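Quick one - first record:
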Amino acid sequence: MNLTSTYRLAQSAYSKRLHKQAITTATRFSSSNDKHHKPTTFATQCATLYHPSTKANRGLAPPIYFGSTFTLDDADHGARLHDKKEAAFTDDDGFVYSRWGSPTNEACARQIAALEGVNEHGGTMLFGSGMSGITSALMSVLKAGDHAVFPYTVYGGTHEFLKEFAVHWNVEIDFIDGAGAQGPEAYRAAFRENTKVVYCETPANPTCRITDLKGVGRVVDEHFGTRASNPNRPWVMVDSTFSTPYHQRTLNVPGIDVSIHSCTKYLGGHSDILAGSVSSNSPEFCHGLAKVQKLITAPLNPMDSYLLMRGIRTLDVRMQRHGENALKVAQMLEDHPLVDKTFYPGLPSHPDNTGGRDCLVANAFRSGRDYDEDVDTMPQTYGGMIAFVVKGEGDVALERAKRVCEGLRVVNLAVSLGSVESLVEHPASMTHAMIPREDRLAGGLDDGLIRISVGIERASDLVEDLKTSLDRVMESEAEQNAA
């Protein structure tokens, strides 16, 4: 037998052995119409993912998808998914990897997009915290040599990011007093040729001052042109965490490009998640934002996406109760002898509440209304955030404010806001302690300022708790002075 004949016999024997192995393997699986056969061996059964029937998708509540990766129809399907540009939402091709988006995250994002009034060209993206959303939005458009304008009263974490990171990346920052009727002109005065971001926070944290968003959008358009006429126009971003879309749909304001929320607060509403949202009607911005999320930050996880959706379902009724309670608390604070100033948009004393339906406060608090005629049938509310300043200067006011916060028994001493339970904090020693005192005072954050997030408890309990703590501080000081 020659070498060729020997090779052919060996090849035939090998083929028969492979065929026998294939038949043996096939008998280990039951027949199925699924793409993959159902295993019968124990180890493979353990490692195989089982799915409910297709009728499971009829559940009223959306399911929670924890998967990090997704099956593909074929290699071309995978190629399409990897070749696509990032977008706020997926399309009929589905998902490929959860860092690029996942079903529960997308369902929640679509719900917030609906509240924000996002059009068919834009989208909403969810992040693991409000700060993650803020920093992602800024990183998606700012580069070395760019300039950005921010208000003095910007949230402490945003200020820290600018001072600790952005300026070291050679981004130039100007801070201005952007609140009130003169705010738009203060923004205009800060514009430069290289301005790429105009940032607003309204109502401001914690002073509750209102920014004239229509005015800001107008001066940006007048100085740089509209986005349609000038694609290099600065991106106008608004953090309206205090108001939520219940009161303020910022993307409906001409000239506003980006809406940002810390969903940890009112949208979630129960102090049990960290989340942030960024919405825009610009496909260009959404593309850049998605790239930052994919490569630097991360999407909101499925469980917190589900909890955020659940919280949003009661947003309308919660916001009304927050506002009703807050007005009663604010009225008591304004009359208390230990309180020097009370900042609440619903009070006539608020600097931006000049009266009438066209004042800044009225425009900033739509109170869940959808149509102009709703103003005659739906109650006006002004949110659940109050700031007040105890009397005194410097360290005296600082210590008084601390004692007032520590003396509360119904209101909880804790940071954050927007939950069903009431929270109190002292910005000078807590949320805004990282801001230099000079900058803090320039933004109206006095040493004796206290911030309250009014919850949905019985209003009389909250009023009594705050009054008792204020009275106790006064009585203690009177006793000390008498001694």
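second record:
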Amino acid sequence: MMMSITTVPRHLSSSSFLFPFPSSSLNFSNSISKGRDCNFRKNMSSSSHPIQASSTSSSSLPLPQDRIVVGVGGTVVDYLATVDAFPNPDDKIRSTSLKVQGGGNAGNALTCAARLGLNSRLISKLANDAQGRGILEELEADGVDTSRLVVSKDGNSPFTYIIVDNKTKTRTCIHTPGYPPMVPDDMTRSSLMSALDGARIVYSDVRLHETALVVAQEASRRNIPILVDAEKKRDGLDELLNFADYVVCTAKFPQAWTEAPSIPSALVSMLMRLPNLKFVIVTLGDDGCVMLERSPDGSLQPEEVDVDSSLQLLKQRVDGSSTIPTCISSKSVVRLSAKGIGAVNGRLLVGTAEKIPPSELIDTTGAGDAFIGATLYAICAGMPPEKMLPFASQVAGASCRALGARTGLPWRTDPCITPHLL
């Protein structure tokens, strides 16, 4: 039997994440810790969110007409400790700062999308513990609809320890999954139907792959596009990719999945293996990103070019002196071929990352999730790839200027991104 959470009091702030270690006995705030269980958000209206209202009502920026995004995946508590340098084995060191806030791929991406103006609906599972209540509180404060989240009476909510190295600006994650894990039977048919009602796009981080597959099957039946976050090979990823219209992945994934000799040839292989795929984006950190977009017109017989050579030519056109994200694309549809693999009709695009001054670069945790959240917005807004890639890179860059995955996520009125929304 599913126990669904309805809403959490909107007046509670994310400052409730003040506990140093996971413990179900620790309270987030008096207003949610005394005499309340998994039904504590009942009868709260999702339209009462003051932060989102004040952020968007003062803006004349147009919102996408169809802006409901449904996300399936992980939402956790992140314990972020910064250190001067990553410890050696058996070292004893001190942290230079500590921050506790919400995290998880899906939770981060939908928070980003909500701040940008989308109506974000999250499908996930937590336990009825202090961490779970804090996770819900923070999501709701950012305008994420959590009414389809499942809450188990017992068990533990997921959490992640993150060590941020101030010297190398890298982070190391130690994740503890939630228990009991989410299974499709946790979600009622009516909850699934209401989650997808009016949705423009569905997103999965493949963390809850069995549930995500059920959602993807229904979304496909309704012709709702699906974006899959292929961070790395996970259980159930292959099945979900068969439903994907869009894929965003890290640099290591395409070659690992296709066994192709290079990233460009791997992208060609992915589009050949996945006929429903409209585009695939590979994020490359401070080297930007590469995108392969399939041509919707299969009757074209364009010039055939080598995909690896095409990528090198595009990189040569990048202005190395520019500090803001830019996009370089092939001028027209070509037939991109990969030796020993095949060819597809489409366009190859190179997106650059923002050049962040060292003094402003704080933490890259969640930068990929920010990129995906912005990509979800761009799809809903109908942005062309030439506009989408710089926008997503700008949002990801903003997230790197603060500790944690969510602190630096911009609102749609932030001056750093408003030019992209005009």
